[in-house]
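Chapter review. Work through the record for Aminoglycoside phosphotransferase domain-containing protein before attempting the end-of-chapter questions.
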Amino acid sequence: MQHALHDDADIDRMTNEEIVAICDYAPRLSIPSPLEGMPAPVAQLSPTRLIKIQLYTYLPEWEFRTMELVRSQTRIPVPKPHRYFIEDSRAYLLMDFIEGRTLETCWSQMWFWQKAWVTWTLRGYVQQLRRIRTEQQSSEIPGPLIDDLASPELCYGPVMGEYHIGPFSSKGEMADWFNGRLRTSEDFYHFKLGYGFDDKAPLVMTHGDLAMRNVIVGTDGRLWLIDWGCSGVYPQWFEYVGMQVDNEPRSWTWTRRLVAGWSLFGVASSEESAVCVLTF
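Structure tokens for Aminoglycoside phosphotransferase domain-containing protein:
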């Protein structure tokens, strides 16, 4: 049975154990669950607080750090993360609740100029992300945001086909993995599928899953980016691939190209390689 929402102040004063206890009956948001038959992994605890709950493997601590970094170094609207902790192999990420509609639910109802505003705004967000500089980029270590450069994390996201791959201690190691997967796919299909992984492109801060479901048109009139679970330091074309959705409308295809810099960074060949690699 679901109960009424708590006060914001009460949530902020609660211990981790108390928060875990109220999660079982907190209202779940109506979003798809990654596991069939399981409740949605996001619950609303108060009018302005929600909590993301998943196995630690799918909700590591670096998502919290990435949200803090983006909030501190850009003007991109990102929910404020309040707390991250682990209890019984489950991870909990407490953050602000953003009221609004995802692009997934309202894109088809938008006028041309509304879609143009969304496109231009997202393009600006991606440019801001790419201006972030970290020691990890200087060391050319791809993957999620890390504190210890000697301990890279597993990579996860649409480009990897929703699998965990790596970890990689260098950009060259990631290129070798993708090129090996491409060769395996070519052997399976008996013809050349695409171009090899270009490891000359710089590593930039990437959201990694900038699909319609992860962009909220807020009631405050701003465009919010949520779900940073696939974020990290990756080649620029990862953003383009991560924006792809099943049966996407043609208008979103053009938005992807303009937002992720398709014509500026030669994404076409690299994106083709990624798609071919993941078909095997």
